[in-house]
Task: structure prediction
Amino acid sequence: MVVSKIEGHLAISKLERRAAAKFYYFMVVNVFFGIILSGSAFQQLKTFVSSTTALGCVVWLSDVVV
Result:
């Protein structure tokens, strides 16, 4: 609410409304980017695990054949 007071709003209802709006926007942006970043991180992890499993099979087969 301090930031809203600095903006110059005098009425308590306006201060509360502006503070609630700032909190709402903060939460929406954080949740949006949190979901995007965690989804891409899990996708990369899935790709890495599947590629290392395939690489491990190739290395294991090359040891068996030699």
Observations:
- Helices lie at 2-7, 12-65.
- The chain is about 90% helix and 0% strand.
- The chain has a mean pLDDT of 76.
- The two ends are 71 Å apart (CA to CA).
